[in-house]
Design brief:
alpha/beta; single chain; 8 strands
Length: 326
């Protein structure tokens, strides 16, 4: 039974041929210690039994809803989640929102721990400010055997509060997020230049709001051949060196996403963050040598030395091109 005095949490899930792990995920949501939540599912053109699994759960649990079962075209994760986000913006009256991946397993206290943390950020003075919390997670294989006790240790990342780091390499994992209505109101229209929904929401929270890292794992994060979210540093390096267009694309992406945040307008952005965003946005106006001098002087560098090296390579070999911030 839903307790009306609890804030409502809306979980957004996009599925695509997820029959192997979907039931396990949905069971982990059903078993949450926090009860006042809804799950909206958009299937992205599955050809397996995903729809049947979703229907089975939605018939049994009133708070699980299949938004549409007529999608025949696979839009991809970004656009599918974007459709869900826009629907939530228009139709949901939830207080807080989460993203969900079809092959993960949530710990029983995930929603409860996230609610407790985000409410620590909430005060009378920042009630209308974007709030976001995210957590550690445990990478596992398809059989839930632990690969590493820490996602951040495995990924050579540190969940810092440094906007320079975040612009260059997102480290806020979408399936660990919880954010408030104000962040949804600002970030719901994801720009074309942004590659994924979760990295955009993280960037807006870091630029315009308050955020907090929960330094304990709240879910098992599957890494396997069928999921598209596992990140390989070796593949990133190989692709970067493979062709120049990749270097230009990475450089333009950094400039564009900074510009896209600036396009939101001054009132939303913290003044100290605005300067950082302008620093990145203006890189495309400089020659290559000046870029390198500028980023070192302004400490516009990613985490870890090997990422710094490849950022310098990008600055050195990318040519001046017309980036856009749509």
């Amino acid at each position: 039974m839903i307790k009306s005095n609890q804030p409502l949490v809306l979980i957004l899930l996009s599925t695509f041929n997820g029959e192997s792990f979907l039931e396990e995920l949905l069971e982990s949501l059903i078993n949450q210690t926090y009860s006042n939540w809804e799950l909206w599912i958009r299937d992205d053109g599955s050809t397996d039994n995903s729809i049947d699994i979703i229907k089975k759960f939605s018939y049994k649990y009133y708070n699980i809803k299949l938004i549409s079962e007529t999608n025949t075209v696979n839009l991809g994760a970004k656009q599918s989640f974007s459709d869900l986000i826009k629907k939530a913006f228009k139709e949901s009256d939830a207080d807080y929102f989460c993203f969900c991946d079809q092959d993960d397993v949530w710990f029983k206290n995930k929603i409860e721990a996230s609610i407790n943390e985000i409410q620590k950020l909430k005060t009378d003075s920042n009630e209308n400010i974007p709030l976001l919390v995210f957590s550690e997670l445990i990478p596992v294989n398809r059989n839930l055997s632990v690969i590493n006790a820490s996602f951040y240790q495995q990924s050579n990342l540190i969940p810092t509060n440094n906007l320079n780091h975040l612009i260059l390499h997102n480290f806020v994992v979408g399936c660990t997020m919880m954010f408030n209505r104000k962040l949804l109101d600002i970030a719901y229209d994801i720009p074309e230049c942004e590659r994924m929904h979760d990295s955009w929401f993280a960037l807006i929270a870091y630029s315009c709001g308050f955020f907090s890292f929960i330094n304990k794992s709240l879910l098992y994060y599957r890494i396997h051949n069928d999921n598209v979210f596992g990140v390989s540093e070796k593949n990133m390096i190989k692709n970067l060196l493979k062709k120049r267009i990749t270097i230009n694309d990475k450089f333009c992406y950094v400039c564009d996403r900074a510009g896209a945040v600036l396009n939101l307008g001054g009132p939303y952005i913290h003044e100290e963050k605005k300067e950082i965003l302008y620093n990145f946005y203006n890189l495309n106006k400089m020659n290559r040598i000046k870029r390198i001098y500028y980023v070192i002087q302004k400490k516009m560098l990613p985490q870890k030395n090997f990422r710094c090296i490849f950022w310098i390579i990008i600055l050195l070999f990318s040519k001046k091109i017309n980036c856009n911030t749509k």
